[in-house]
Structure formats: C-alpha cells, structure tokens
Amino acid sequence: MTPAKSEPPGVFARALSIRTSRHTELKDVTAEVEKVVRESGCAEGVCYLYVPHTTAGVLINEGADPAVARDIEATLDRLVPHAGAYLHAEGNADSHIKTALVGSSETVWIEGSALSLGRWQAIFFAEFDGPRTRELRVKVIFDRP
Amino acid sequence: MTPAKSEPPGVFARALSIRTSRHTELKDVTAEVEKVVRESGCAEGVCYLYVPHTTAGVLINEGADPAVARDIEATLDRLVPHAGAYLHAEGNADSHIKTALVGSSETVWIEGSALSLGRWQAIFFAEFDGPRTRELRVKVIFDRP
Amino acid sequence: MTPAKSEPPGVFARALSIRTSRHTELKDVTAEVEKVVRESGCAEGVCYLYVPHTTAGVLINEGADPAVARDIEATLDRLVPHAGAYLHAEGNADSHIKTALVGSSETVWIEGSALSLGRWQAIFFAEFDGPRTRELRVKVIFDRP
Q1: How many angstroms from the chain centroid is the CA of residue C92?
Q2: Cystine design at B49: which of A93, B106, C139, C140 (Cβ 3.0–4.6 Å)?
Q3: pLDDT digit of tens for each residue in chain A (145 aa)?
Q4: A44 contact residues in B (CB cutoff 8 A)
C-alpha cells in the first residue's frame, strides 16, 4: 500500500501490491479493495479500479466457488492459446490479447461505507502473464465531499 | 424501481428490475435507463450502469436491427458453449464466463438532459442465465451539483 | 476537435475525430487524448473515454511494439470471422460482436496534469468496420473543481 498523498476532500487513492502465483490466475482481491474503501472513510461514492499493466486486467465475478474462476481462466486459455502464430516476439502475445478482452478498469459503487457488490460478486485481479508482483490502483470519489 | 433515498445534491441512484425470458438474451433497456435520467433532473453528467449479478452483464450496441443482438448472443454461445468440461458444478459456468467477457459496468454521459448515446447505440442488459428477474443499477452524478 | 462549450468548473469535454485506414484496426490515440488532458488544465482527475459507434470501441494495451496490436486484431478476426452465418444483413455483424467484446468506454486517471497510464500502456481506438472517420469522446472531471 502506497503512503497517503495530499488529496482534496472527497478523493482517496491507493495503489495495492498484488502477488500472483500462476501464468493465468484470477485472484480474489475483494478484501484488499474493501480495506481501501474503509480507510477512505467514504460512506457513499464511486470506487474506480485500474490496472496499469498490459498483460493483466480486472473483472468482477463469483467468488464463492473457486471453480468459477478456474473455468474463466481455462476458457480464456482455450480461446487465446499461449502458443500460436503471434507476431509479438516476447512469448506473451496471448497475455496482451486476454487483457484486451477482459479490460483494464472497473467501476464499483460505495454504499453504507462498503463496496456495493452483489451477493455473489467478488473483484478479481486477472493475471495473464504471472507469476509477478503487480499493481492495482483504487480511487474513491465521495458523493458528498 | 426502488423508492428514492436521501441523496446529496448532484447524485441520483435507482435500481431497475429487469425481467428476462431466455437463457442468453440481450435485452434493450435504453428506455428504462433514459427514464431514470429524466427523473434525476440532471442536465449534464455521468451515468454509471452496474449489474450486481455474476451471470449477467451490460453492454452497448446497435438497437435498430434486432438481428445484431441475436448475432452477439449466438457468437457468445459458440465461443463459450453451455455444455463443456467445466469445473463449476451448477451447470452455468458458461454464464459466468460470458459475463467476464462482456463486463459488469458501463459508463455513459448525459448531455442536454438525455443519455448521450451515438445514433445507433442502445443499452443492453446481457442475460446469460435466464429467464430471471434481474437488477440493473443506475447512478447519475451531475457535472454541476 | 469540437469547439469548447460552456462547461461548469471542473468539467472539460471534447470530441476527437479519428481517421482509420483498415477494416480491423487498433489505432494508438494516446497523444490525442493526452492533448485534451493538457488543454483541460486538469492536474488530478478522472478521464472518461467513450465511443458513440456500434462497430468500434476503445481499449488499453501495449503501444511500444506494434505487433501487439496486430496480434489482438488477428485474434479477434479469428474468434469472430468477418464471414459467417450471421442474421444481420449489412455484412458487418462481426464488427458489432467485436465491439461488444472490447467495450465502448474506458476510464483512466489524471495525475500530475497527465494521463496516469502504466509504463507500457497506450490508448487504442478499436476500429472494427473501417476505414472510416470516427469520433472518440473525452471527458475530464477534476478532483478539485
């Protein structure tokens, strides 16, 4: 977690460090994001998530059964295989393509001083070229500064 | 439509109830979202759309020719078949995966007291495990509170 | 670039004209978006990108090696071929479907009066039915109006 910067009232931003352990890995980071929201003191607002990498993204899906994340990983690996006739010579063209499909940002709301996720929803850091140490940026904008 | 809560000036949020009728169904909900924008009284602002489910999402595409939505549905069903070697045992792994590809949120702007959509654009609730009664959350943040 | 409209303090919006040259083309528009951010005078804020078309989107990925964009284009063309058993009779069903996968909006942050992109990240206008002249909308909301 980066140290607090000087921020205007109603804005709170942090960068989380995420350690991944597999090449393709959806890692549940809901608790880490929730911690930033609590630390922000925001009661109602919007929470922006941003991944500053080109071979990793962020998505929201079911966290209760870990098999769901495994199925998403396996399907992305099937649709965009690691080995293929790619032009990019660094051996991770598939990682870039998966990132383009999943996306680099998400927007969640804050209600009652907590992330307003659906009952089964969790936030996943979507690693497509791990294992690595990654960054997930979280920015909170208060509805009532 | 949920009743109005106490909101600060410049913020307006509602949850729409969406009834879907097929397993995979892109349902045009532009009119419902437009109604929330009108009710908000917002002239210029940002309109956030959020789906709190893990087997449904939201996307923007052509609404004029219904064949476009049918083609998107059919292609997603082809790329991520309902039946497959999935680990998730509830029979809807494909629904979760399609949701990961389409995404759970969208951001549209408000200009001149209306959604600032392109000429052919419509907002679709993307059902991937219907028929069900679903929720689409709409939040309006005014540019000038 | 559209002329400046009367905007409240802390809000700045422009529409960029983007000329594409191929049917499927990821075009790096980072410099154009960065120019809008500079023109806005915003030091810290949120930058919303929106594509008002139904056969083009926006995404963030690596800009350093042009092969990455070519690999993303080729994979999308492989997953969603131009020719296929589509219902939409205008010959560009694949363009609509690719747009649904990539998405119509992105959200980036502004820090230190510049786009807060990761080291290798670039913003790409994702053309799926070119060549055409297209529009990319950019809206900046200041953290401190």
Answers
A1: 19
A2: B106
A3: 454 556 788 999 999 999 999 999 999 999 999 999 999 999 999 999 999 999 999 999 999 999 999 999 999 999 999 999 999 999 999 999 999 999 999 999 999 999 999 999 999 999 999 999 999 999 999 998 7
A4: 7-8, 11
Q: Are A96 and C71 in contact (CB under 8 A)?
A: yes
How many contacts (CB atoms, under 8 Å) link A and C?
A: 85
Check: CB of residue A68 under 8 Å from CB of residue B54.
Answer: yes
What number of other Cβ atoms are within 10 A of residue C6's Cβ?
5
Task: Please tell me the pTM assigned to this model.
Answer: 0.95
pLDDT at A145: 76
Residue B1 has pLDDT above 60, yes or no: no
Q: Could you give the CA distance from residue A132 to residue A127 in angstroms, rounded to a whole number? A: 8
List pLDDT tens digits, range B45-93.
999 999 999 999 999 999 999 999 999 999 999 999 999 999 999 999 9
Cβ-based contacts of B103 with chain A (< 8 Å)? 59, 103, 106
Residue B2: the pLDDT is 52
| C-alpha distance from B10 to closest chain A C-alpha (Å) | 8
Give which of B14, B30, B32 is closest to B119, Cα–Cα: B30
Q: How far apart are CA B123 and CA C52, in angstroms?
A: 12
How far B38 CA lies from chain C's nearest CA (Å)?
20
Its ipTM equals 0.94
C113, C43 in Cβ contact below 8 A?
yes
3-state secondary structure of A6: coil
Whole-number Å distance between alpha carbons of C58 and C56:
7
Tell me the domains of chain B and their CATH numbers: 7-142 (2.60.120.460)
| Beta-bridge partners for B26 | B126
**E-strand stretches of chain B:** 11-19, 25-28, 45-50, 56-62, 105-111, 114-115, 121-127, 133-142
Angstrom distance (rounded) from CA A46 to CA A89: 39
Neighbours of chain C (3+ CB pairs under 8 A): A, B
Nearest CA-CA partner of C52 in B26, B66, B60 = B60
| Residue C52 confidence (pLDDT) above 80 | yes
Rounded Cα distance, B54 and C83, in Å: 32
Cβ-Cβ contacts under 8 Å between A and B: the total is 85
